[in-house]
Amino acid sequence: MLLLYLLFGGLIAGLLLGGRLSALADVRFRWWPIALGGLVFQALLFSEPLATQVGSAGPALYVISTVFVLVALLRNIGLPGFAVIALGAGLNLAAILANGGRMPADPQAFAVLTGQPRPPTDLFSNSTLAGPGTPLAFLGDIFVLPRPLPFANVFSIGDVLIGVGAALFLIWTMRRGTAAGAPTGIALDRASARGR
């Protein structure tokens, strides 16, 4: 997926610019169990056997888990790059909500990726093919990383923003040594402790 390429690029750029990987250990990510829980649930939702059992509840469960992740991102909006990440996640959620709990996908992009004309119907899929009347289709999965590239997938404008924001977060944090954008982050806690 695109996110992995941008994360790798962010790490490499951070190192080339003199940053330290160890600086990432100083980051305080608030409400991380909520974000992790939402992401883990989505991974389970898209895998068998759960994907074959959720039925009509699948879209609602997908929306709820996405909201959990977005709420956690907004709680950390002061971290570098997280405003961009949250914007991307919000655009994705808008497209999903406008299409009944599924992300619209460009038919040509989907066919290039999968070789199939449409998503499977025997298990839950978070995708629905976009058509002329699809709401917010331009926010859907309109781009594709084709095979044989590793981690081939379709992706959206929101996904691009998420990846760019994540790369900016890595670069900034690795260079500065702390995630200073958070008003109550570890960097300020340490400075306060030194002043006592």
| Residue-averaged pLDDT | 86
Helix/strand-derived category reads mainly alpha
> How many beta-strand elements?
4
* Helical residue percent band: 40-55%
Gap between N and C termini, in Å?
47 Å
Strand order of the largest sheet: 1-2
Give the topology string: H per helix, E per strand: HHHHEHEEEHH
Largest sheet: 2 strands, parallel
Q: Describe the global form.
A: globular
Report strand %: 5-15%
Low-confidence runs (pLDDT<50, min 5 residues)?
A: 178-196
Give the count of helical stretches.
7
Radius of gyration: 19 Å
Folded structure, characterized:
- This protein has one domain.
- It is 52% helix and 8% strand.
- The protein is built from seven helices and four strands.
- The longest helix is centred in the C-terminal third of the chain and has 20 residues, at 157-176.
- The N and C termini lie far apart (47 Å).
- Residues 178-196 have low confidence and may be disordered.
